[in-house]
Amino acid sequence: MIRLIASDIDGTLVPDGTDRIDPDIYDVIRRLTEKGVTFVGASGRQFLSMKKLFDPVWRNIYYITDNGSILREANVIHKKHVIPRPLLMELIRDAKRLPGCDIMLCGENTAYCEEYSEMFYWLRDSYKFNISVLGDFETYLTDDIVKMSIYQKDHAEETVNAWFTPKWRSQFKIASAGTMWMDIVELDADKGSSLRDLQNLLGISKEETMAFGDNLNDIGMLEAAEESYAIGSARPEVKQAAKHVAPPLSMNGETEVLKKLLESME
Predict the structure, then answer these.
(1) Distance CA 163, CA 79 (A)
(2) What are the strands, taking DSSP E only, across 8-65?
(3) 218-252 pLDDT, tens per residue?
(4) d(CA 172, CA 88)
């Protein structure tokens, strides 16, 4: 019996960088909760962005935020991975050498960038991020940082993987979080490890877990769930890692799978 459902957000429940979610998902989550099933949103997004997205049910679900760096409920943080400051500054200096890229740093409640850029306005207006323009990171940053994201509009993965990823992958997890994003978190922080932490917290097994995803940063989470689904529009590597393929996002594939699960439970 399924007791825990984990879902990626961008590319799985909403088109990348939007808040256009299938409104039926709220009723589905409510009905699942009534049947004792826990829902957890798992995303590269910060908590406040996810809270707005899940507003009708936000108090009743768990959150894996910042690509697995924070595991929390509405008002309780269960685990947080902070990037050590000296290494963070080295990462920033290297990321600034990448052509055409912008950098976002994520604290527990606020994201930071250095200037008012295309990335800033997209995160503020579309992702609904709480984001602040800080100026030079090395001069003004005081917050603990749980994730660094590198943004490039067209070739983020190719650009970052050219030399940045080979240099840093022994010390950090670096993964695509969408066509424009590469996320950097601590080695022991990802969606999969956070989902396993939640399973341990709730006393729920892998066999009682279902997960949905579409991108490389979702693979660890899919591997932590017995009933794993790649959305039909997912990357080929994700479809290969998943046990099942759901209909695409354009057909609200996850919602349809969960409606069928509810039917089987009733």
Answers:
(1) 31
(2) 38-42, 62-65
(3) 999 999 999 999 999 999 999 999 999 999 999 99
(4) 11
